[in-house]
Amino acid sequence: MPDAVTDAITDEITGLAGVLVWTSADRFEAMELFYCDTLALPVRTARDGFVSFAWPGDVRLTLTLHDRVDGTARDPDRLMINLHVADIAALAARLGDAGVRFDRPPQREPWGGWIATFRDPDGNTLQLLQSAT
After folding, report:
1. Most buried one in 1, 48, 69, 109, CB count within 10 A?
2. Same domain as 54, residue 84
3. Among 20, 45, 68, which residue terminates a domain?
4. Among 40, 68, 96, which residue terminates a domain?
5. Which residues form the domain of 3?
């Protein structure tokens, strides 16, 4: 991307505030258990039909209801949520013990880092990403 375009975008969009994962009311409990208990993400805010997870820098991942969402993801490969991790092998082992099935178990990438891919109860794609050391 040319520098002028990059500079213009950077002046307007200053970062990623977060990602919303929409689900239906009948699926919310399973999704909440997965993100809160199985993944053990740090809960920032929780209320009926809504839970928000936060990390340093105010980036949030939010699980909430949407009245136009029904059932599981129809195209789970359209979007992937990358979760940065310090020790992919240890976390993948813990998740595997908790019943998570990996579409792609931890593997080293040509750039030196590691990735592992799996799905949440609605079928959305998530990926663990361990940076190269």
Report:
1. 69
2. no
3. 68
4. 68
5. 1-68
The rounded percent of the chain whose pLDDT value lies above 70 is: 92
Confidence label for 105 from pLDDT (cuts 50, 70 and 90)? very high
Mean pLDDT estimate for the chain? 91
- Looking at the structure, tell me whether residues 113 and 133 fall in a common domain: yes
Closest alpha carbon to 60 in 118, 12, 32, 20: 20
**pLDDT single digits (tens) 51-82:** 999 888 888 999 999 999 999 999 988 999 99
**Alpha-carbon span 53 to 75, nearest angstrom:** 24
Same domain as 61, residue 30: yes
In a shared domain, residues 119 and 88: yes
Residue 19 in tokens: 């990602």
CATH of the domain at 18: 3.30.720.120
**Strands across the sheet containing 60-65:** 18-23, 60-65, 50-54, 43-47
Percent of the chain topping pLDDT 90:
77
Please enumerate in sequence order all residues whose Cβ is within 8 A of that of 112, keeping only pairs 6 or more positions apart, or say none.
132, 133
In whole angstroms, what separates CA 131 from the centre of its chain?
A: 16
